[in-house]
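Quarterly update from the structural biology core.
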Amino acid sequence: QNKEMKVLITGAHRGIGLELCRIYQAELGAQVIAVCRQSSPGLEALRPYKTVSGIDVQHTGSVRHLKEEIGDEKIDVLINNAGLMVSEEESQSLQQIAQNLDASILMFEKEYQMNTLGPLRVTAVLLDQLSSGAKVVLLSSQMASCVGNTNGRYYGYRSSKAGANAMAVSMAHDLRERGLVVGVIHPGDIDTDVDIHPEASRAVFTRIQELKMEDSGSFVDANSGKKLQF
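Predicted structure, tokenized:
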């Protein structure tokens, strides 16, 4: 049990974010700062150390408000879990995008603001509150892998997650001298609209626990622990 450990998780109201809150709180006795746009009955039932709702990582002002809400708390594990896939764009071919370009670009921009710039906003705003030896985690997707793209489509989602991965590698270089570790984790092929992902969440938790400086900037599969190609 570690009452001193503080873990901040975005997108904490459901899915992997909610389950990670439960694991850190129940198994490590950590003080969990649960961040979300809107709380949920499941999150309220957990009664985490702090819940900060009304936070949208797509907007810098909202993330600055998060910093104001948590005060001078030091963070030992920062988990950038909040993400977005716009369902309408999932199966679009390039031809379909061309036929509806303005609407498609708007969808992609939403994904970039959430998936690419969201983790950057959160990490940058909270940078001075990361404790010595802290871990910064980005939940990504194997769909971000250019090498692993064997069937195309998903233009916005793939590129937004690939951008986040690139930023994570840069973060790993920039934060190394401070002793901070950055991990990029693919949780598995899951439906993020489902409220509970116990197996995927357990695998993500295990990978975070294992994360060491020599792994900083690596992209790993949560289930196997194997490194993935960017």
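The chain has a mean pLDDT of 94.
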